[in-house]
Design goal:
Helices cover 36% and strands 21% of the residues. By secondary structure, it is α+β, with helices and mostly antiparallel strands.
Length: 279
């Protein structure tokens, strides 16, 4: 097993990261675990076309998005979000003890076994998945003595689940084609794949949890964020990322992150473009 790495957040808050190898690497970006009192008031998650499986062993946390507020107590699955969502820790001394799986775009389906489009822009409690295995692994991790042990148990569960019902699909190649060409028209994608737009959206809905236009929008913003630097000219970011003009770029940026590019830069994290902490 690849080493579990502890990230430095604060002396009262431990955070552990594990990047799976082998067959899981194709579907999962990272398995992580946390333990302690967060030094921040809000964790903001920026859309990146990832689905997430979360298990909570600490205090309840309020998850907010444009559709609803969700009281996260035990375990949940989130589909692809087209706008940012947050976890709030505004009240004092919230014990943050979680384990999570961030799936790569299109990576959740072999584990969830349901069309991921059914979970677009929503978070659902694990029983809604109709699969007792998720509840069992939650109970097993609850017996673990450390965050690292929870990661080990969860990785084994995911590997066993993938082996039990593994069928290959074209989703990773299709999603990668769109990721590399977020500025191209949908017609370009259909021409390259030979799919009709209807079939393209059906495949993406099942495996990636959204349609071609929405995932293009997410990937285009992700490309812009990755190219941003403190001294970077905004016009260069705009046109280099495939936006028609700066107004369009700033509109999409604020809609999907809740911030302007200037507001985002001071709070961005050096290790990920997916999460920002607001203090």
């Amino acid at each position: 097993m690849k080493k579990i790495v502890q990230a430095a957040i604060s002396e009262h808050f431990r955070f552990f990261l594990h990047h799976p190898e082998g067959i899981l690497q194709e579907y999962i970006s990272v398995i992580w675990a946390s333990d302690g009192i967060p030094p921040f008031k809000q964790e903001r998650i920026i859309p990146d076309a990832a689905s997430v499986l979360l298990f909570n062993f600490g205090d309840p946390v309020v998850i907010r998005n444009e559709n609803s507020d969700f009281d996260f107590k035990k375990a949940l699955f989130t589909g692809v979000f087209s706008h940012f969502n947050t976890q709030d820790y505004a009240h004092a001394r919230v014990l943050h003890s979680q384990v999570g799986v961030i799936f790569k775009p299109g990576g959740a389906y072999p584990f969830i076994h349901k069309p991921i489009i059914d979970f677009k822009n929503v978070a659902v409690e694990i029983p809604a998945l109709g699969d007792r295995h998720f509840e069992n692994v939650y109970e097993q991790m609850g017996e673990s003595k450390s965050p690292e042990e929870r990661i080990v148990r969860l990785e084994k569960f995911l590997l066993d689940r993938l082996k039990a019902d593994f069928t290959d699909n074209l989703a990773p190649q299709l999603i990668n084609l769109i990721r590399k060409n977020p500025e191209k028209s949908i017609g370009y994608i259909t021409q390259k794949t030979g799919y009709t737009q209807q079939h393209l959206n059906r495949l993406l809905g099942k495996f990636a949890g959204t349609n071609a236009k929405s995932i293009q929008k997410i990937f285009r913003l992700n490309r812009a964020i990755q190219s941003m630097g403190s001294e970077q000219n905004l016009a260069d970011v705009t046109y280099g990322s495939g936006y028609f003009d700066q107004a369009h770029f700033i509109h999409d940026f604020k809609e999907m992150t809740g911030m302007t590019p200037k507001e985002y830069l001071p709070v961005r994290r050096p290790d990920t473009d997916r999460v920002v902490f607001l203090y």
